[in-house]
Design goal:
With 503 residues, the chain is of the alpha/beta class. 39% of the residues lie in helices and 18% in strands. It has 15 helices and 17 strands.
Length: 503
């Protein structure tokens, strides 16, 4: 065997050049107690709150309690493979999720890992789930409408891009349906959507994903799921993960809609974690920082100023009430953080009014600044007339002798109630809504039987599409109804009534 000294020296030189005297250092602690998804760890003196910890079996945890002699960590997943005496390593990373366009159309868990069986996600970057909300200087006022496609909302409680509008009501009153309709209505409007499910049944989620796929909404939507069977820590971080995914697009100048369904279950998950971590309980056994839990999440919704990209993040948190009690602890907390609420009532729902929105309790603090001029003009009198009708309807039960004026108001109120009804998963364009509300406000429906109002709506819109497409085009372009256009609409309504025999 011939040894070439040149080759040997060459290899030695390469080895010496690539040698590094830097040592890899990672702090390691020990599990001293584990159970109920919580691990108490000794050591790790340089751990930060919210930092990721790695257990011996590869499971991750998050440091939440930094006590004097130990750390209280929540385990992201099952604690079955973790036992006392196991080593725990500091990762030096805060909890983060993958972000970017690769998440569009995907279903992920609270850690951003795909659960739709479609392989790995090509992430553009990673983003911390907890990040500071944009400052006042970085924001501008909300002035663009986010169309939900639901007449009762777009007319009476308009939502603007960058707003936080709470959807509140008892269980089974159609809260999720409103959020899903809003997502479906963003098709072709260049709005990215994130739907976060917290503590929902897996069967419910399968149905929602099926609807989003069938309507083509999954093309611009990311679904983040922490089901009822997932651990409390995963339910706790899910909305922050969803917000981080949406924020990435907002900071790139895009419009984003994030739905948190629902924050009542989120609060319950956080309460469970806090009690297991031995944090002192307060009102209704919730920890003292329960308000901060939701305020730091919802404050991240913003309408950014042009210098910072001009993107928007609109938040639609959902809260479930018990027996319509909106003065309970969590509902009042979130009402005080948001810019208004859409209140859904069980009585209305049971009487066949869908969506079951109560315009008396529902409010948007952004108001008309998030409406096109035509809608603003038509919606103003509508709210007053609806409120008057509700009041008159209550008193008219006790009186048989009613004046002609009262009868007309009651008659008109019934038609308002009927017009505001809308089938699920059938959002309506703003031009169609304007036309219908115009016909309602100008008393064109007063001689139509209440039972035929919804049929008249369909016939009217169909007729306009076929014979007077310029009307919708002008409303879309100018956002207003000119005098000339009013005459055209009146003529079309008369033609429809005559043709389809309404009267």
């Amino acid at each position: 065997m011939i040894i070439n000294p040149d080759e040997v020296s060459k290899v030695l030189k390469q080895q010496i050049e690539s040698y590094s005297s830097e040592r890899e250092f990672s702090e390691v602690g020990t599990v001293i107690q584990v159970g109920d998804g919580i691990a108490r760890v000794h050591g790790l003196y340089s751990a930060m709150s919210g930092e990721l910890l790695e257990f011996a079996n590869g499971t991750y945890g998050m440091a939440l309690n930094l006590d004097e002699d130990s750390i209280g960590a929540v385990i992201m997943g099952s604690d079955a493979g973790i036992k006392e005496g196991d080593p725990v390593k500091l990762t030096g990373r805060m909890t983060e999720v993958p972000v970017g366009d690769g998440l569009l159309g995907r279903v992920v868990n609270a850690l951003g890992e795909p659960i739709d069986g479609r392989g790995a996600i090509a992430a553009d970057a990673y983003r911390r789930i907890e990040s500071p909300a944009p400052s006042v200087i970085m924001r501008r006022s909300v002035n663009q409408p986010l169309q939900t496609g639901i007449k009762a909302i777009d007319a009476l409680v308009p939502i603007g891009k960058g707003q936080r509008e709470l959807i509140i009501g008892d269980r089974e009153t159609g809260k999720t349906a409103i959020a899903i309709d809003t997502i479906i209505n963003q098709k072709g409007k260049d709005v990215y959507c994130v739907y976060v499910a917290i503590g929902q049944k897996a069967s419910t989620m399968a149905r929602i994903i099926k609807v989003l796929n069938e309507t083509g909404a999954m093309d611009y939507t990311t679904v983040v799921i922490a089901t009822a069977s997932d651990s409390a820590p995963l339910q706790y971080i899910a909305p922050y993960a969803g917000c981080a995914i949406g924020e990435e697009w907002m900071y790139r100048g895009k419009d984003v809609l994030v739905v948190y369904d629902d924050l009542s279950k989120h609060a319950v998950a956080y309460r469970a974690i806090s009690l297991l971590l031995r944090r002192p309980p307060g009102r209704e056994a919730f920890p003292g920082d329960i308000f901060y839990l939701h305020s730091r999440l919802l404050e991240r919704a913003a309408c950014m100023s042009e210098e910072y990209g001009g993107g928007t993040l609109t938040a639609l948190p959902i809260v479930e009430t018990q027996e319509g009690d909106i003065s309970a602890y969590i509902p009042t907390n979130i009402i005080s953080i948001t810019d208004g609420q859409i209140y859904l009532e069980s009585d209305l729902f049971n009487h066949g009014v869908r969506p079951a929105i109560n315009p008396g309790f529902s409010v948007s603090r952004v108001g008309g600044s998030a409406q096109i001029p035509a809608m603003k003009e038509l919606a103003g009198p509508l709210r007053i007339e609806f409120a008057q009708y509700k009041e008159l309807a209550t008193f008219s039960q006790f009186s048989s002798d009613l004046t002609q004026d009262t009868l007309e108001r009651l008659n008109h109120g019934e038609r308002i109630m009927e017009v505001l009804k809308q089938p699920q998963y059938k959002p309506m364009s703003v031009e169609d809504q304007v036309l219908i509300l115009y016909a309602l406000n100008n008393r064109h429906m007063k001689d139509i039987n209440v039972g035929r109002i919804l049929k008249f709506e369909k016939d009217f819109i169909k007729y306009v599409d076929k014979h007077a497409a310029h009307i919708k085009e002008e409303i879309r372009e100018s956002g207003r109804i000119s005098k000339k256009l009013e005459e055209d609409i009146d003529a079309v309504i008369d033609e429809v009534k005559e043709k389809y025999n309404y009267g």
